Amino acid sequence: MSKRKNPSGAGNLNADFCDFLMELSEYEKNVSRNIHKFNAYKKAAGVLAAHHKRIESGDEAKKLNGIGDKIAKKIDEFLQTGKLRKLETIHQDEQAKAINLLTRVSGIGPVKAAELVRGGIISIDGLRLNLDKLNHHQIIGLKHFEDFEKKIPRSEMQELESKLKEIIFEMDSEFTITICGSYRRGKAESGDIDALVTHPSLKVGEGKKKRDATLLKTLVEQLRESLVTDTISMGDTKFMGVCRLSSEFPYRRLDIRLIPCEQYHCAVLYFTGSDVFNKTMRAHALEQGFTLNEYALRPVGVTGIPGEPIPISSEQDIFDYINFPYKKPEERNM
Ligand code: 8DG
Ligand code: CA
Ligand code: CA
């Protein structure tokens, strides 16, 4: 997942609460490494961002799903004093600040950041003097630190999409490619490019053919001529790397996943997100007696053991099977 998200967009009447909740969630993720608190703050921020009315008190907030006593108290404190003691303390904590900063580098997670900070590295410049302590992914992340923090405007995403399509259709017109993530959800800006590719020859369960294993590498080699500039990692089915349209544009993070055609629609659904939407849809699937993941939709029998994947020929199919009203990608921004 890309880092530093904030649900406080236009039309959010509770944006100031969302800002402090998101900051607290980042702190729990990166510094305390308390995934439950991270999720709780993030969920609360999402709920408040979606609320149609300005919240006037902690008690009022508590009526919303996902907001408990502790967060309600923080809302009251913020309303009464205009700030939060907990955040003030965090802002003064040099260690916490350094850990938060280092995790902004692609490839550096909370554990690695804490280790670096313990070793006395507390700034981006400090990292640049200690490349020997970083792996390949982290070095690329550092090299493009400033660019990777810049959002990608939709117009540039559209150009990237056309160029990717042009190159892969030139290789083989039977390829299918979909740019998923926030771009597919219609967002004005995106953090990275999440590309899914399939081909009629790519099938599950036919054993690992040599051709399949080289397909992604051949594709990326073609992209290297005009778009791809660095490889972070390259597997048989997943490429992580860097691209840019031309020297006038920033470097951008690009992931390409090669998906067997039977799994394509489940993958497109999953990687379109949002992650909160995915959770809601998975929970609904379970209530209807199905398990849904990035690979397949499967019925769960009385034994609780998932059965064979259900043949799926469109995203709509998945919604239909689990009796979930169809949502266009632009309606999945939750
Ligand atoms: P952004 O890049 O513009 O910041 O937003 P995004 O496109 O929505 O987020 P992303 O981090 O690029 O992830 C793309 C989609 O993948 C996301 O919308 C839903 C799905 N997804 C999850 N969980 C996870 C996860 O743990 N890692 C990744 N890489 N993707 C996930 O639901
Ligand atoms: Ca994305
Ligand atoms: Ca991504």
Briefly summarize what is shown.
The chain has helices spanning about 15-30, 35-50, 60, 70-80, 85-90, 95-100, 110-120, 125-130, 135-145, 145-150, 155-170, 180-185, 210-225, 265-270, 275-285, 315-320, and strands spanning about 150-155, 175-180, 190, 195-200, 230-235, 240-245, 250-260, 290, 295-300.
Give the helix/strand layout.
Blueprint: H1 15-32, H2 35-50, H3 58-62, H4 69-81, H5 85-92, H6 94-102, H7 110-118, H8 124-128, H9 136-143, H10 145-149, E1 152-153, H11 154-171, E2 176-179, H12 181-184, E3 189-190, E4 193-198, H13 210-224, E5 228-234, E6 238-243, E7 252-258, H14 264-272, H15 275-287, E8 290-292, E9 297-299, H16 315-321
Parallel strand pairs: 4-7
Antiparallel strand pairs: 1-3, 2-4, 5-6, 6-7, 8-9
The structure holds 8-OXO-2'-deoxyguanosine-5'-triphosphate and calcium ion (2 copies).
Spatial order of the strands forming the largest sheet: 2-4-7-6-5
The CATH topology of the largest domain is what?
Answer: Beta Polymerase, domain 2
Distinct small-molecule ligands in the complex: 8-OXO-2'-deoxyguanosine-5'-triphosphate, calcium ion
What is the helix fraction of residues, given as a range? 40-55%
Please summarize the sheet with the most strands: 5 strands, mixed
Rg, Cα atoms, Å: 22 Å
How large is the share of residues in beta strands? 5-15%
Query: Number of DSSP strands?
Result: 9
CATH architecture descriptor of the largest domain: 2-Layer Sandwich
User: How would you sum up the global shape?
Assistant: globular
User: Spans with pLDDT under 50 lasting ≥5 residues?
Assistant: 1-5
- Total domain count: 4
- In whole angstroms, how far apart are the ends? 15 Å
The number of helical elements comes to: 16
Mean pLDDT: 94
